[in-house]
Amino acid sequence: MIAATEQNETHLPCLDFLLPLHTRARIGVLEACHRAVRSGADLARAVEGRSAAWVRQAYEESLAAEQLAEQWVTMGDEELAAVKPDDLADFSIATLAQLYMERDGGGPRYDELLRACLLSDRGSALVDYDWMFADATGYDTIEDDREQLRFMELALAHNLRHSGGGQAVSINGSREIDIRSAGVRWSLRWRPVGDGWLRGNPTFSVELMPVVEFEQKPAARGPGLNLIYEHRLMPRAALHPVLRAGAGILFADREVPPGVTRLNFSLLVGFGLDVDLSGRWQLAPEYRFHHVSNADTGPINPGVNTHTLVLGITLRLPNKRRSDS
Q1: What SS3 class is residue 68?
Q2: Domain 174-315 has CATH 2.40.128.90
């Protein structure tokens, strides 16, 4: 336990100046980790949305990087060039790379450090390897397709293994998980508009999903609501292609992704078919692409991309003014 006189000395001046671009936490989050560890607080509640293991690891990694950075900022070019990335933890490598970015605007040494961090087998709770991989690609530090695939595999493996709760949480990138849901949809369909192959019924729908399940660890469940615009083509045929776009809101009993927020918003696009069966009944298979994020309402805003297959049964209510004629 650190002495009480030191418990509030949590400011990280070097990291405040050199916080790497490729990081999952702001300086305020890191300082909260330091205050919690030094005071012996309940680490599971020290930083909202972060596990106790993540808080501890973030503390250790940022403390080591801060101590090294205090030395690096006083070094000349030759001394700094002699620092070997093989002897450093990944977050310290990223911090050293940021120092070169601040001093020289990048350069060969910056590229070398990016490569060293991406090829490391250690991993870090703080480094966002997806973002680092994107930066390495943008700076042409990857030599060929084989090396690019290797870097991509390592970036994914590190993010999955070392982010809080064992799930990849990325400031800048999106990830894909599976979603299962069940619900009901009420639609208001208008008379056909347009000409040629685009002629179809404009349709506005409200979709209520009492149960939405996110397949992650741990799994998350909750209700959702979508507002959807549909354009139903070929109004006189028995087989109707349908184009859909919409937005919605999702509330889960756990954070989605883990360590972020329970409230999320979604955008969707999709296409499907309405197949006339008999009378007022239709079969409605559909594909959707969902993008789910918290719209910057949480400490970070990762994206979750989902590819969804929907199978529905439609019952058309009686209406004296038929809208599909």
Answers
A1: helix
A2: no
